[in-house]
Amino acid sequence: MTYPSGTIVTRKIKGEKEDWHLKGNALCTSIFKIDLEKCENIVFVGDEDETIKIISVPPLKNQKMFTIKKDLENGHTFNPQFHLEEKPLPLEEQREYTVKQTDEIEEKVSRMEEAFKTLPFEIMPESDLKEEIKKLGLDHFVDPHFPPRDTSIH
């Protein structure tokens, strides 16, 4: 499930067990609540007597939340109720994160600009270009003639 903020909840099924993960892609704390009250023959692994779990995941983290176990031999009914609440970080923390990300992007752009000044990237085969990008320790190409800066817009 993908939420509008970009937060993603996934289930990894391994036979009778399911691992539930939450990947936070926003500057907010994600609070995930699941209720198994309307399920039959399904339990939380390690908390078999519990029917409700509330998990808090920090901003921009990928975290396993819990594992459930289904009774495959006797049958089961899977009808969970769940809810995601997202609490934004305070504005000052958001600004700090934005500044940090901007600095990291600027550093990557500068490295790429410097490296590609001497390379004919416009006519290089794609495979060679990908190799050069890997050598720089980067994960994607940034055009040094049109970097992602405010000055490129004008």
Write the layout of secondary structure elements.
Layout: E1 8-14, E2 17-23, E3 28-35, E4 42-44, E5 52-57, E6 62-70, E7 81-88, H1 91-116, H2 126-135
Antiparallel strand pairs: 1-2, 2-6, 3-5, 3-7, 4-6
The Rg value, from CA coordinates, equals 23 Å
Number of strands: 7
How large is the count of helical segments? 2
CATH class descriptor name of the largest domain: Mainly Beta
Shape: elongated
> Which CATH-level-2 architecture of the largest domain?
Sandwich
Can you tell me the residue ranges where pLDDT is under 50 for at least 5 consecutive residues?
none
Mean pLDDT, all residues? 88
Distance between the termini: 39 Å
Main sheet makeup: 4 strands, antiparallel
Strand order of the largest sheet: 1-2-6-4
Structural class: alpha+beta
Strand content: 25-35%
Short summary:
By secondary structure, this protein is an alpha+beta fold. The protein has helices spanning 91-116, 126-135; strands at residues 8-14, 17-23, 28-35, 42-44, 52-57, 62-70, 81-88.
Q: Could you list some keywords that capture this structure?
A:
Immunoglobulin-like; 154 residues; alpha+beta; 23% helix; 3-stranded antiparallel β-sheet
